[in-house]
Structures are given as structure tokens and as C-alpha cells.
Amino acid sequence: MRRIFYALILLGLLASAGAAAEPALLPDQIGPWLADGPAKNYSLKELPADWISSSLDGHILHEAGLVRVENRAYKNGDQSWSVRLWVLGDPSGAYELHTALLDPRVSKPGTVEDTIASGAGLFLIGNLVMQGMSSSMEIPLEDLRTLRNALAAKADKTPFPPLKSYLPVKWRVFGTERYALGPVGFRAAMASLGQRAYADLADHVGFQSGVEAMLARYQGEYGSGVLLLLEYPTPQLAEQHLHHLEQTLSAAAKQAGVTVERKASLLSLVFEPTSAMHAQAIRDEVNYETDVTWNEPRHTATDPPMVVIMVKIFLFTGLFLGFATGVGIAFGGLRVIIKRLFPGKIFDRPEDIEVLQLGLSGKKIDASDMY
Question: Is-above-0.85 flag for pTM?
């Protein structure tokens, strides 16, 4: 019993040593910035209280698949800079966390892979979300790009969710993009966009069926609205949840102009639309096209000219006739030669020949007389 106890202690020490020996992702130097000590790792349970906010609680981090948080301080003369790196299990979870951290007050238009927000120094690369924390200065853009390039080699190369590319760029208020993998992220996204009245839709959109949600606020020349996109694994599931959501929406929501529309596997809803026309205009900008492909064997028409076809027909017919004639002559000639050399021994042996005789004459038929 004591041996088992010591073995368990040894396994625990080895596991903790392996976790402690996990290599740091943040580099020792970023341009002119030098690390002020080793990186510190935090698990979900060890996160400082001031890192958690109303829009980013432990439930969202758990849903997004947080692995750990790496924090490291850097110095450049009298200036200091603290980098907080969120490490997620996959790029989808990282994208959910990234959108939850976006602030429309500082976000700039750009690609999701390299979104850099002034002051916050926030960007996404693979399964990593980086925050540059500095209260006294704006982090130089060049240094942010240097750090991004250093992390790119260590990040997960799995593609981001395709749903993010469906959001229209026209009229979008940058920084309001929200992506949800589950009900917790969905409720937080709806609350951050001022749609708490519809947060209960998280129980009806079908996250248990593998749906993904994407939201953003739009402000156009003639009105505004909040667009919600729901992508389902199959068009059949989308059609099923379309009817379910139509029954779930309250009469007040329908009167306010909230409708559900389906395009293949994608459902779209516009909350607080200024007008039905503006809501439809936002939907028309959705970058989603369906492609139905059918791969089957095919060949290209390469028929030769008619003259070539006729020449080949006569040629191969002549070759076939010549071959048949040659085989016939060879077979007949061989038979005659064998009969001359071995008469009645191999072919047409008398004892093997039977002749029907009508008996019209008294002469007995000799089989050899036939040759």
C-alpha cells in the first residue's frame, strides 16, 4: 500500500514538472523591448480577479476552451509593457474570445487574422489571442507586428470559422463583431449589443446541434440594426430551427420587425431594424453563396477526323483478314504434312471413322477411299 502511495506522489511530481517545463510562447525580446523576467502561466482557476469582467467571465473562457494565460512584462528604458497571451484549444475558441474582447471605441477595420486595436494592442493569430497592456503609452504598431510574426510560427494553423467571412463589411460598426460557440457566449454577445430581451434565444437556436452564431451592429445611411447569422451543419437542420425560432419569437419582436430568413444552411435575423427595407438591405450584403457540386467521371470529346477513322477501319480489317487467312493456311498445311508423313496414324484413322451405308450396292465402303 505504501509503494502505491509513493508511486502516486511520484506521478504527481512528474506531471507538475512537465507542466512547469512547458515552453513559453512569448519571446525574450520584441524589437527594443527586453523581457523583465520569465513568463507567468495562469490556469482558468488561477486568473486574477481584475482580469475577469462582465463581458468576459469564467463561463465564456471555459466555453471557448481556454488552456492557459501567459503573462510577461517587457521594458525599454523607462517604458514598460505587459503582454497577456490567451492560449485556446483551437482557433474557433480563440476567435470567440477575441470578439468578446473587442471594443468598438478603439477597434479599427482590418482582417480578423491581424486586427490591431490602438491602445489595447489586441490581435488574433491561430489559437492565440494577444493583449498588450500599457497605461502610459500607445504600443508601437511595428512592435505589435514583430510580436505577431514571432507567435505565428507557434500558433495553430487550423482555419478560422467560415462564418466570420459572411458578415457584410458595408455599414458594419467595427468592434461590435461577436462570435459564439455556445449559449454562454451567445448571451454575452446579445447583452453587449444591447439585445438582452432576446438573450433567451440561446436555448432555442440549437447549439446542441452544432450551430455557430455571429453578430454585429450595422449603421447605414438610412438606419441601423443588429444582424445575427446562424450557420447549421445541414440545410435540413436550418429549416427545422427556422420554424422553431418563428414560433419562439414573441409578438412584440415580430411587431418590431424581427424576422427569420433561411438561405441553405444559414439563418439570418435583424434585431431593432430601423425599417424592413433597411433590414433586407443588410441581409442582401451577406457574403454567403451556396455551391452544389457533383463530381463524376467525364471525358473530353477528342474524335479524330473522318478520313483517319476510315483509314483505321480498313487497316485493322485487312490485318484481321490477313491474320485469319494465315492461321487457316498454317492449320491446313500442317494437317496435310502430318497425313503425308504419318498416314492413318494421327488424323483420319480408319478405326475412328464411321460411315453410314444405305446398302444400295453390295460393295462394302472403305473409308480410305474417301481420301
Answer: no
